[in-house]
């Protein structure tokens, strides 16, 4: 298993969601808007065994892929997950079930 680090970040002054579309029925956060953000179910190898999380793929930098962990309601957490591609077991597309307001795997 390759080495990786998990970075936990918190918003500071000016990190609010100014100018973003709100989420209907929710306090705080932003709507997805124009399909730019894609939800996934991510399974990966960690030092404590395999982990499965809801996430949004952010970007590639060097030989690592950066993900933002999200909760089942689609809200971003403060956890940034940085993985080597060889530690990724799968990425499954997910979508928001608008009836229940929770993420689910796409069929």
Element layout with pairings:
Layout: E1 6-8, E2 39-46, E3 49-61, E4 64-70, E5 76-83, E6 88-97, E7 102-105
Antiparallel strand pairs: 1-5, 2-3, 2-6, 3-4, 4-5, 6-7
Helix share bin = under 10%
Taking pLDDT < 50 over at least 5 consecutive residues as the criterion, the unreliable ranges are: 10-22, 31-35
Number of strands: 7
Mean pLDDT across the residues is 78
Q: Give the number of domains.
A: 1
In whole angstroms, the N-to-C terminal distance is 31 Å
Q: How would you write the strand order of the largest sheet?
A: 1-5-4-3-2-6-7
* Tally of DSSP helical segments: 0
Order of helices and strands: EEEEEEE
Q: Hey, roughly how much beta strand do the residues contain?
A: over 45%
Rg computed from alpha carbons, rounded to a whole number of angstroms: 15 Å
Notes on the protein architecture:
By secondary structure, this protein is mostly beta strands. It has one domain (1-9, 36-107). It contains no helices and 7 strands. The protein has a 7-stranded antiparallel beta sheet, with no helix packed on it. Strand 6 and strand 7 form a beta hairpin. The chain is elongated. Residues 10-22 and 31-35 have low confidence and may be disordered.
Question: TL;DR of this structure?
Answer:
By secondary structure, this protein is an all-beta fold. The protein has strands at 6-8, 39-46, 49-61, 64-70, 76-83, 88-97, 102-105. It is elongated, with a radius of gyration of 15 Å.
Observed structural traits:
seven-stranded antiparallel β-sheet; 107 residues; mainly beta; single chain; 7 strands
């Amino acid at each position: 298993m390759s080495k990786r680090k998990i970075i936990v970040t918190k918003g500071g002054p000016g990190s609010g969601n100014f100018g973003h579309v709100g989420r209907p029925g929710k306090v705080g956060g932003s709507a997805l808007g124009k399909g730019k953000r894609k939800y996934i179910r991510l399974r990966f190898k960690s030092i404590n065994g395999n982990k499965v999380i809801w996430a949004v793929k952010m970007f590639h930098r060097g030989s690592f892929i950066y993900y933002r962990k999200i909760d089942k309601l689609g809200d971003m957490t403060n956890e940034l997950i940085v993985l080597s591609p060889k530690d990724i077991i799968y990425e499954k597309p997910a979508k928001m079930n608008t009836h229940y307001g929770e993420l689910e795997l796409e069929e």
